[in-house]
Amino acid sequence: MDIIRSGKNRRVRRLKKLRSRKGRESEGLFVLEGIRLIADTPSECLEEVYVSEAAESDSLRSLVAGLLREGIPVFWLSSSLFDELAETVHSQGVLAVARVPTVSGHSFWEDTHSIVVCDAIQDPGNLGTLFRTAAGAGYDGIVLTDGTVDPYNPKSVRASMGSLFRIRHCTVSAETIGLELKQRGFRIIIGDVHASKSVYEADMSGDLAVVLGNEGAGPRACLIQNASEVVSIPLAGGLESLNVTVAAGILLFERVRQIRQAEW
Q1: Are 41 and 66 contacting, i.e. CB atoms less than 8 angstroms apart?
Q2: Which residues pair with 99 in a beta bridge?
């Protein structure tokens, strides 16, 4: 088993390049870490896998054996070099390079009836959690507006728990997506802490887009002006707001509740 020990190796140089958003966008690649996350990634999206020479577990051996059967290249790194490249504090000793999923404008809208719009979400952990929540609530797609953090940031990738591959997504300017949703006949529901109408009074039926605003500034005016309804979540105890991921869970699953209630 050959072990890569030099940081000047071309593969290692590429791994370092993928630490930056610019590098990820130029290569169309990003890095995944951890056994579960790599195992959940569609094999056709995996480019290559790197394992620390010091890593040893039954689950890791099983993962590597499966990857090799799929014809995915696996390389071993010295433990010091792997630790230099790993983003997590307690690494499981394996990381992978994956291709960024590509979605054309046509395929994004095909058979799409429910969308989450993430408007300038700044925290990568929040964004990854929003992907996971939207996928769990059965939404068809996610739109990231300009100013939103990179979904392939390592923290976003970990927080998404594989949902980057489960739900189609694209990046569009805030002004463009507001107009496009309206032209396509979507109801646009915007969560805003200042709204007087409760989310529980909103109509979440039909083709629907739920807009989640920036953690500090909230949704942009160009989106609000195209909204069908602007709603808030009733809060007790004098609280003014919730974390965007908690609010998203309430807003997104209200559609699920209404659909199931209508079916009873």
Answers
A1: no
A2: 29
Q: Using CA atoms, how far apart are residues 92 and 45, in angstroms rounded to an integer?
A: 21
Residue identified by tokens 């629907």 is 208
For residue 77, give the CATH number of its domain: 3.30.1330.30
∠ CA 232-123-102, rounded to 5°: 100
Separation between Cα atoms, residue 253 and residue 78, nearest integer Å? 46
Task: For residues 40 and 70, state if they share a domain.
Answer: yes
Count of structural domains, the chain: 2
Are residues 71 and 31 part of one domain?
A: yes
Tell me the CA distances in angstroms from 51 to 3, 60, 61, 218, 246, one per residue in order.
9, 9, 10, 42, 35
Q: Which pLDDT score is estimated for 72?
A: 96
**Structure tokens given for 55:** 């890593």
Residue 101 has what pLDDT?
A: 87
Determine the pLDDT at residue 104.
Answer: 66
- 3 state SS of 189: strand
Given a cut of 70, the residues of the chain with pLDDT beneath it are 1, 104-105
Contacts of 38 (CB under 8 A, 6+ apart): 32, 46, 49, 63, 67, 94, 95, 96
146-204: pLDDT as tens digits:
999 999 999 999 999 999 999 999 999 999 999 999 999 999 999 888 888 999 999 99
Sequence-distant (≥ 6) Cβ neighbours of residue 67 within 8 angstroms: 38, 43, 46, 49, 74
| Residue 3 pLDDT | 87
Which of 59, 82, 99 marks a domain boundary?
A: 99
